[in-house]
Amino acid sequence: MIDTGLHLIIAPVLIPFLTGALMLLYDDRQRRAKLAISLGSAAALLVVAIELMVRAKTFAFAGGSDTGYYLLGNWTAPFGIVLVADRLSAMMLVLTALLAIPALIYSAAGWHRQGQHFQSMFQFLLMGLNGAFLTGDLFNLFVFFEVLLAASYGLLLHGSGQLRIRAGLHYIAINLAASLLFLIGVSLIYGVTGTLNMAHLSRMVAGLAESERPLFHAGAVFMGLAFLVKAGIWPLSFWLPTTYMAGAAPVAAMFAIMTKVGIYVILRLTMLLFGPAAGASAGFGSDLLIAAGMATVAFGLLGVLASQGLGRMAAHLVLISSGTLLTVNGLVLAGGGEKLLAGGMFYLVSSVVATSALFLLLEPMSREEGGIAAMLALTADAYGLDDPEDDGAPEVGLAIPGTLTVLGLAFGGCLLALAGLPPLSGFIGKVAILSAALGSANLAPGLVWSLIALLLVAGLATLIGLIRIGIQTFWAAEGTVPKVLAVEIAPVVALLGMIGLMTIEAQDTLRYMESAASALHRPTIYSAGVFEAARSEGILPEPETTE
Amino acid sequence: MIWMQNLPLWVALPAALLVVAGSTLTLLGTLGLVTLKSFYDRLHAPTLGTSWGTAAILLASMLVFGWTEGRLVLHELVIGIFVMVTTPVTLMLLGRAALYRDRGEGSAEVPEAPPEPAPAEQP
Amino acid sequence: MIDQNLLLVLVLLPFLAAIATATLPVHAHNAAAWVSGLFLAGCLLVLAALHQTVADGGVLVRTIRWVPALRMNLSFRLDGFTWLFVTLVTAIGVLIVIYARYYLSKSDPVPRFYSFLMAFTGAMIGMLLSGNILVQVVFWELTSIISFLLIGYWYQSPAARDGARMALIVTATGGLCLLAAMLLLGQIVGSYDLDRVLASGDIIRAHPLYPVVLGLFLLGAFTKSAQFPFHFWLPGAMAAPTPVSAYLHSATMVKAGVFLLVRYFPALGGTEAWFFAVTGTGMATLIVGATIALFRHDLKGLLAYSTISHLGLITALAGIGSQGAILAAIFHIANHAVFKASLFMAAGIIDHETGTRDMRRLSGLYRFMPLTGTLAIVASAAMAGVPLLNGFLSKEMFFAEAADWHNGTWLDNSLPYLATFASVFAVAYSLRFIMTVFFGPPPEDLPKEPHEPSPWMRRPVELLVMVCLVVGILPGVTLGPALNDAARAVLGADMPYQNIAIWHGFNTPLIMSLVAMALGTALYLGFAGRISTGPEGPPVLHRLRAQRVYEWLLLRLSWSWPRRLHRAFSTDQLQPQLRLLVALTLVLGGAVLWGAMAPSDNPRTNALNPAFALMWLVGAGCAIGAAWQAKYHRFAALISLGGAGVVTCLTFAWFSAPDLAVTQLLVEIVTTALLLLGLRWLPRRREEIAEDKLLPARLRRIRDLVVAGIGGACIAALAYVMMTRPLVPNVGDWFLRNSYYEGGGTNVVNVILVDFRAYDTFGEITVLAIVGLTVFALLRRFRPASESVDQPEQRRAEAQDGLRDYMLVPAVIMRWMFPVMIVLAAYLFVRGHDLPGGGFSAGVTMAIAFLLQYIAANVRWVEARITVLPIRWMGFGLLIAGLTGIGSWLFDYPFLTAHARYVDLPLIGRIPAATAMIFDLGVFALVVGATVLMLIAIAHQSLRSARLREQDAEPEQKEAA
Amino acid sequence: MELVLSMAIGVLAASGIWLLLRPRTFQVIVGLALLSYAVNLFIFSMGRLTVGAPPLMPKGGFVNPTAYADPLPQSLVLTAIVISFATTALFLVVMIASRGVTGTDHVDGKERET
Amino acid sequence: MTATLMWGALTWAQFALAAAACLASWRILRGPRAQDRILGLDTLYVTVMLLFVVTGLRVGTSFFFEAALVIGLLGFVATVALAKFLIRGEVIE
Amino acid sequence: MTRMVPHPLLSLGLLAMWLLLNGPSLGHALLGGAIALVAGWALSALEPERLRLRRPGAMLRLFGIVGLDIIRSNIAVAGLILTRDRKGKRRSGFVKVSLRLRDPAALAVLSIIVTATPGTAWLEYDPETGVLLLHVFDLVSEEDWQHLIRDRYEALLLEVFP
Ligand code: NA
Ligand code: NA
Question: Is the Cβ pair D76, A173 closer than 8 Å?
Fold first, then answer.
């Protein structure tokens, strides 16, 4: 009776939601069971996300479309909230699920026991992320941003301890301020246009009265700033390194995609609202994005070079990746073309997976200097008052042989991918961006040259920085080989496997991204689809409401 | 205000009087809150508003809405009861708090604390 | 087709060998060597099989689709030039494998060594064979990366680590430049296909970007082949095991750069810029390398600088670019590879058998190892360019090219002198090598007693020296055809066959050679003593070492300057970050709105009600009061905040938002309670903090006040402009029209929340749930600051102040309010759909009811009587809301589709029934659970700290007892 | 009324921003609360101001939307109120925890060095 | 006539209550002791509640009722919590 | 019966409240009844003791007296505030009253009466001694106030709450 195909689009939100809610009914000490449930949910998410991706790719959504629409509550746009699953959002969903599984496996090494309700919060984070990727409504975007932020607060503070709490305080304060800004922006846009539906807005932009346009732009700027905070733009990104460093490893691994939600939204909205068809608003904000993006790359590369520890460096790598993507976004808005955008998407996926892997490596790599022991010391203030089973030594597991070799290889893989060195996907992404930028007729050569210089220098800085750490850790360190569990290294290997797969299947991946980029360049099709999405007939008679 | 056009005088007059009386009482109470010199004096001031200030205004409301809706409107009673029952809690605690703090500072204004019961008296 | 596939085999075999060796056990010395050697031998077989095709001038190409979208495909291409080069690489590779088998000690983890070595070979072959210029960069960078691992093989030594890092940074930087160059080339040519690029020389040279491309390209090539001033990494890389040095610095790594110069000559070369840049750099490198080599005391150091110098020679030839020059360049590539590999191996044997490489300690070794000595002497002679050896031939060709007329520039004209000058030093250092190491008095106190190495360690050297001799004597028969094939492959088929003879008559090159030998011998003989006692490097110049400059620069560029800059452009304090956010918002918002924000001509206004204005006098006063007092009088600020909140709530009610008013009020109450619960844990704040009175603090405050003032003014202006604007047609109208007919409720706000936009509410309750969990989790691990563990001052004093049963009477009322509040909650819940109220308000009301009981009594008292399991409430709440939404699937509707209808009940009549109410019930349960959880979790801290106090007190009591 | 309300929003926002930039956690939390009042009123005012016409519909009959206050901003504010309540609570607890582990209520977890 | 009468009465009432709120808030801001401020807030709550009722009368709808009801029943919780904090130094023991 | 309806008076009151709020109808009577029952159970969890009231007549008389007193005091206190404390001649002060009343519920009612009447404020009650400390706005004679509390309110309350 239930047409699963119809409801597939909401599944990425519902699966983690139900899982998270259900786990609240169980005692938090049943951690193995919860881990299994959580993993099951993530696996289901992956299946669903891939199915959505396949549908987007093969035009298998209703009506032979490459985009699926889901009218929540069966209300048509622009009145109800509509979910839109197109190639881009499907890609982000897959990426999220792909990161979640390794992070969860990693957490089995002991992290999930460092605090309460880890698994539920993790699921809610997934829900928030997926919700933000799918929604077609501005205010709903706010709500799901809050879901994912709230979950990220919880996960960041997971395990407690001074470092986390200090970082958490800043993180929360700044994000609260940004959320307020977001609200001002959204409401301003509603006040000017009378709608919250992104497709509706996209239709209206070109025809806005000239007296209204500045207000509309102001709304966009306020919202944009909120997203830019989340994306880690310089100079609004100083919270990011401390926060990402403080998070527990599996959490930090998920944080790798958190900045990208900001990027995703900026990309989505700018392409919808300020694309070529936006009349007087076309290209709005591209200068800002380019300038801010480049400044962020520059800042990130300075940070990478200036970092002493791998954690801080990894966080600055996140900034470089964010900055690059924003620059690309700005350039695309300025007419950079579909290929450039496709290159950017490829880069996005590659850098997210690689940073995630790096964050997972962080802890095993620094184990000799403390690692889990240090983490326990950090949270030792919890001793004495709580259930003893909350804490304690890491779970016994299978220690891997040839630890240093495996760690070294994994680290090397991350390094190659992040520095954009051949042959891994980072290189392909960089080549894709650079060759597209060079090939674009609409971009000022100065911009293109700056982009090339910046990307190459950033790659170099990454190489220098990571090599420094790598040498320190693997070559210069003396003492015993740390004990690393298989559940800790397997996720990293899996993530690197993804990078490898992306490298080998670069053609198909890039093709997919090219069609995604092409779709983003045609917002009219998006909005037409949203408005034409049909209500479900259902099997019940029309409700009788009058008395 | 158009909706009051048809209000008969026998409703409007008492209602108006009640409203004016209630609000004026409340205002007077707060005036006391500002002008009275000691805290314990000021503690009395708001009760003007919570007793007949509230009662008068609620009565007026019952009267007017009772007439316009053509039936007995009593739900303002609930508010009245709530206010009456809950105000003492605040004021008692506040008075007690002031007493306690003043005693703690050794103020001569306030009476001594009741003597501690001898330990033997305790069950 | 078989041939083409063999090409793939050629590239793959070394990589397969790498994988195979990597899986061997740590001490499998023989197996690793055998596997590597056999795989490479396989490569040689393949090369032999392909030779005929290439010799016929054919070009083999095999392409595998990789990323056609980027025009980046795995294309491999074999012609005469690459055949020769690959053969060289592979053949010397085999010898290195054999050599390494005996060179490495038992304790070295050899599988890793062979694995890296094989991978490196594969990368090198891949680079040579790449038919796609981007893929060429891929393999190019791979050689850099793998060489890093090889150089750092003995990573326990700091020198190895530094050397490896330096090599990687320099060559990878060059690689990035090369990448940029290739991308540009691809743009210019329209293809990344090597054949197309090589055929498009005219287009490239005419393109305005040609200088840029050339610059980037040369940076790539020069860094890799250690051209001055990027030469310094090469000596540093000598920390590698000798087999690695022998391989990297003879046939492979450094030759990649010159390979590129020769290969791309048709595309990029032939211009004056090329000549000056390439030949100029080459000559400079030739001279610098040769000069420094003479003064190095380390055997491998001498060889390293000699390598640099020879690479300069080849580069100079590539810069000249005439047919002869290219042929000579290729010839010297091969010759240098052969004699330098043998020399490195010989140096390795000496090191291995004596324990030192310092020429000041080595002496008279000939009597201990005559065979090795002979081999080394022959190889050195080849290096010095002594006739009848292969080095002589290519050097003669170089001299010939140097002496020849090309373009008449000053550089061209000075080439012969420069070449001779450099050669003088080459002769001198070769002599020094031979004389100091093998002749003279017997060595004293060497770490080891010198003797001949195991024969198999010597075999590779013997073979190579044999090649030196054979090629040197019979060049035309041995290497001639292959060389010609190679040169033709580079320059085109129309190039005439050039005979390579050992005797060209008594001509200028020969004179140059003789002069060089004479002067070189004189130089060595004249200064031998002073050189050996002098510093490590040429006089005066040794102070000015490029490596130091590099290290200084690297430290600055990659560490101290970035650190300083990073610190200047970032902060880890919260306040500046928030200030930046506010300021950026104001600046950007201002930039967009400046001059564009006029109030509407016909403003939409409501008549002013003085009461409302008075109320906002209250609100504003409270807001400012809260801001004023939040530092020193938190309690007062909290109360002021409550005042501002209640006026806000009034405003909502005033302007037709009763739901908002109710919700705001309820939240206000809970927030006050929460903040109060938190206040207890904050430190006392003294009014007098001297620092606050200081000027900087004051200035900070003034600045923030200005920012805040501007911010407030801007948002006020924006709000005014928006409020007075005519209302645009909006979706709100649709909600008003359809709320009752479609949503089955008259309270449109509630219908929006539980039906039209229920999905927002669905997310919102999740936020609440998450926050509840977070609060709970965080507080579970909370440990208060030591001063907060104590009872609050008030309670410590309680005994003497007779604060007995102060709650007795209030608590009675508060308890009796519990059921009343439950009824109120039910009331708010039931009517929500039609009138103000709803699940959220009801939930908060319920939570307040619980809160009040906790206030009236204490935690233990309450929890002994009522058990609230907040997390269960939350779980059920979420599940109810979610499952209600999913329930619509059963009827083929999307998630959260509500269904409303009126139901006839016996006795009661028609009552409204909407599934949205069930959803709202979920909201209710969740809100109760989450709010209570937060309140109680904080409240429990007092209990916990009481327990902490008890714990702390216990040891004291024990001590006392 | 519009002028009064916009000035009110301005004062709330200014007080909030001022507090947001202060160094003590409690100041920041009060600032966030004040700011959220300002923002909620701002969102609310996007539906323009209507006196005495809450979006409570008659049961049946013709509905003239212009006669009622815009319900959408109201529902947005409701959601925003709930979310800012939640986040305030969270911030509060982090504030308490921060004070517990760092011993200070400075936002940076350490007193500023002068 | 009656409308004018009611208008006058209600306008006065609104004004008087708003003025009362001003006076109450003066106590909130002025203090001097914490108990004064709480007393001020409590009074402000009641005043606002009455203002709800009066404004409801003036507009002629009963939708202000819920807000007034909530203040009437729950408004004291905030002040009770504040008062208890004064006495005990914490709200929940 | 006591288990099902632990606080019948309260439940009845709550039902009345429900009907006052929602308007009388059968549906609401049923729903309100159910809710009132549940609320009664909730209270019985906190306070198992049932409230016993006697003499509803005395109760009504009390209501009447209190209502009148409140009106009178309202006027009196308002006048005092307006006349600026009778030009400074007003004296306020503390009054101690020894109470016989011990039932907490009765005390609660008394507290409501005292508080609702402007001019008297309930400050402190010592359960050990039964002494109540009042603050009186216009203290003419301490004994008048003690009599007022004891005879006018406490006596009736003792009748209602045995
Ligand atoms: Na509602
Ligand atoms: Na009183």
Answer: no
